[in-house]
Amino acid sequence: MAVGTGALALAGATALGVLISVMARTVVTPPRQNSDDVRVIAADLQAGTLTLQATPDSMVPGHYGFWFSGDAGHARLGEILASDPHSVTRRVERVDFGNLGTARMGRWSGWVYLGPWSLPVPFTNVLIRTEGGQAPAWQIPPAREADAESGDWAIHVHGRAVRRQEALRAVSVFRDAGYTSLLVSYRNDGDAPFSTDRRYGLGDTEWQDIDAALDFALAHGAKRVVLMGWSMGGAIVLQTALRARHRSHVVGIVLDSPVINWAEVVAFQGTLLRLPASVARGAIQVMGHRWGRALTGQSAPIDFHRLDLVARAADLRVPVLLLHSDDDGYVPSTASRALAARRPDLITFVPFATARHTKLWNHDSEKWTGAIRSWLDDLTAR
């Protein structure tokens, strides 16, 4: 009996260790491709409608992107025309490319615009010299030509496992406010050069590429810079504001669905996967220590305390606009609320109730755009 109990305990510990290793490696490894996870039930292209599997995202009103057939096509979907507990029918606003009529699976996205040409706005393809090589970016001028000399720039930073197209939704409000926008790429995002280990640093390393973007902006006329980050991009711009060489030129930060405390996000994801709480705690330990390198492939451990902006709230020095939905589904809003409560002198918190993760603009563009416009006006008046 003792031997049997010991064997079971060993097997349990081994299984737990495997789960911890897999979770840690998954968090820091860029996905090779995104998976289609929404079933297409019916496409009526003549009527301009698409019926999909009902999911927490597909049931939210608004305007969205829909990648289908393994990214072989992209469509823009609008209003909900009908729904039941299992399906939702939405208006097809446009098919950008691909054959939607033959699609069987797809994935929901906040991407409505595929590039600056989709807005459409004038833009320039530029290269930013980073530690790993030349990283492509889009430079977009303000709406009024006279504002181009103002020195007001915004650097837009996308989140994990997506690309700079994610940030295009913010371009118009910044352009109208007189800002030059720089939509950047960073290591391991599929556009910029890979890091040597090809692993995410969750903001602890990527900020250096945004530091390089800040150098670029200053060399091309920027005097005052607002950093905007989406999801993991939020963690990245916060580190940039705290650690960049020229951080004195950063005058404000805008955050959409940001990661404020990675430990909380990893724990939340573990709960969604119905894993024991010890798996998430163990994954943080693996990613945060040098001995974890053999399991994750990281070249250096991640300093999770340095990434915890709730604990480091006192270090913030510039105004922050923080937008987050309480039904996010990926990054809990609790850390955003906690950070806002700690620094009401600097942080303007704008909550959403049912906008999901990084889709606040898609769900209620008027509220989202109005919040940023008002905050930028206040920033100028300071």
TrEMBL record:
Gene Ontology molecular function, alphabetical: catalytic activity
Superkingdom per UniProt: Bacteria
Residue ranges of domain AB hydrolase-1 in the record: 170-351
InterPro entries the record matches: AB_hydrolase_1, AB_hydrolase_fold, DNA-binding_regulatory
Pfam families: Abhydrolase_6
Name of this protein: Pimeloyl-ACP methyl ester carboxylesterase
